[in-house]
Write a structure and sequence with these properties.
binds cytidine-5'-diphosphate, 10 helices, three-stranded antiparallel beta sheet, five-stranded parallel beta sheet, disordered N terminus
Length: 224
Amino acid sequence: MTAMDAGTRPIITLDGPAASGKSSAAKAVAARLGIAYVSSGLLYRAATHMALAEGVPLGDERALLEMLARHDVRLWPDAQRDRLTVDGEEVAHLLHTDAIDARVSEVARLPRVRDWVTERLRELAGPFVIDGRDMGTAVFPQASVKFFLTADPEVRAARRAGERSGELRQVAERLRRRDEQDARQSAPAPDAIFLDTGPLTLEEVVERVLQDVRAALPLGAVER
Ligand code: CDP
Ligand code: CDP
């Protein structure tokens, strides 16, 4: 993508730790702008799901890449929801489980798996809003507007506890472990706008993001 494209086919990135509110905000912002939403985490989750199903060891980078090459894995930018198909079958609804949460970082730490994900993402045509860990750094350093969402660990644990099984303390411990395992790919972009979502409602987060997007992009660049 060239600098020109950054204006005409904008990419808006939202990075941040688990349960910082990235995907809820990204989906709502995309819907308000009338453009697509993409979850980069779905590709790591899909690779983990497939490996668990096929008995491929999660630390075996070579075997994982062979597995990924054998299948047609596609991420579909969509205005409202997660969409990912493996060999034509929709699997997005199977990917947000405790089992995948617990193992996904083992797959995401492998450099060649990260390269595979980056290639899949760069094939997508903008405009879109995308969330993850390294969207504003490694994958789309030229993105039009970048955000880094944060929230205190207790706030994030309470949010995730509402969506998953287990005691709050257990959920908090799992999040802490995942933050630690994901630390390497989770540094904010130097030009990202920071937003602490802890004291904000989802609607307030969305309004703040939209304000900054409107300020940063030429009028009419994204809104239809
Ligand atoms: O929504 P949540 O932050 O819990 O998860 P996600 O965004 O679906 O990401 C799942 C996992 O994929 C993360 O814990 C990371 O291990 C990995 N991931 C990554 O390494 N880089 C990304 N850009 C997105 C996800
Ligand atoms: O994508 P990520 O893991 O960063 O977080 P999420 O799945 O968007 O948000 C986790 C939960 O927190 C969801 O149930 C959201 O509705 C909720 N949330 C919230 O209560 N307040 C916010 N400002 C943002 C999200």
